[in-house]
Automatic annotation (TrEMBL):
UniProt protein name: ATP-binding protein
Cross-referenced SUPFAM superfamilies: P-loop containing nucleoside triphosphate hydrolases
Family the UniProt entry places it in: Belongs to the GPN-loop GTPase family.
Pfam families (UniProt xref): ATP_bind_1
Claim: ATP-binding is one of the keywords in the record: yes
Keyword Disulfide bond attached: no
Keywords: ATP-binding, GTP-binding, Hydrolase, Nucleotide-binding
MF GO annotations: ATP binding; GTP binding; hydrolase activity
């Protein structure tokens, strides 16, 4: 055949990539969640923060060291052949909050993981996303042994706005985590659409 393009191969569609943050208190299951769904070996990056190039006040609260290391979870999952999510686990330690602002750049939405035994550990993350208008979904990681509460009482305790979704999950289970991710993406896209409509009307 003169022209070699095979009609049998499906045209390759460049997937849309979306960035999702995974937040929540220390030990709530962020690393577990990213590891459960990631197709690449989840990377626990060690970021070296050097004093050079950073405004001094950015380092406020960090011990007087010239370098420090921060563990951050990073993973990737193909939800559909045309939709790839990049997951970024936010550093849990309070003193690394300043890193969140950089991480949050360009994020479509976020998961706030919660443990019903210490819901207050999730308050800071919820406040953070509310204040910045980043759509988030609360996922209760149902540890066995932890008392189960109805979604409504968890919503109440977290003082969630009615439009914020709350789902139950098992951070160790791939399908369960995929369901959370689908909920996050759908919710964030609906909100993004609404914002778009408000801006263009
Ligand atoms: N039983 C149980 N253990 C979990 C679950 N999710 C996480 N863990 C464990 O809880 C600990 C803290 O989880 P990790 O993912 O490191 O929390 P992170 O600090 O938020 O990253 C680890 O020992 C996990 O194996 C869960 O759904 N059930
Ligand atoms: Mg972790």
């Amino acid at each position: 055949m003169a022209f070699g393009r095979s009609s049998r191969t499906k045209p390759y569609v460049e997937p849309v990539t979306l960035k999702i943050l995974v937040a929540g208190g220390f030990g709530v299951g962020k690393t577990t969640l990213v590891g459960a769904v990631s197709e690449i070996r989840p990377l626990r990056t060690e970021e070296v923060l050097t004093e050079a190039g950073r405004p001094v006040d950015d380092l406020h609260g960090v011990e007087s060291k010239t370098t420090t290391t921060v563990a951050m979870d990073f993973g990737r999952i193909t939800l559909r052949e045309d939709l790839v999510l990049y997951l970024f686990g936010t550093p849990g330690q309070d003193r690394f909050w300043f890193l969140w602002d950089e991480l949050a750049q360009g994020a479509l939405g976020a998961i706030v993981l919660a443990d019903t035994r210490r819901l207050e550990d999730s308050f800071a993350a919820i406040d953070y996303f509310e204040r910045r208008g980043i759509p988030f979904t609360v996922a209760v990681n149902c540890f066995e042994g932890a008392q189960r509460f109805p979604a409504e009482s968890v919503r109440g305790a977290l003082d969630l706005d009615p439009e914020v979704e709350l789902v139950m999950c098992d951070a160790r289970d791939r399908e369960s985590v995929k369901n959370v991710l689908v909920a996050v993406v759908e919710h964030a896209l609906v909100l993004a659409d609404r914002t778009h409509a408000a801006v263009t009307s």
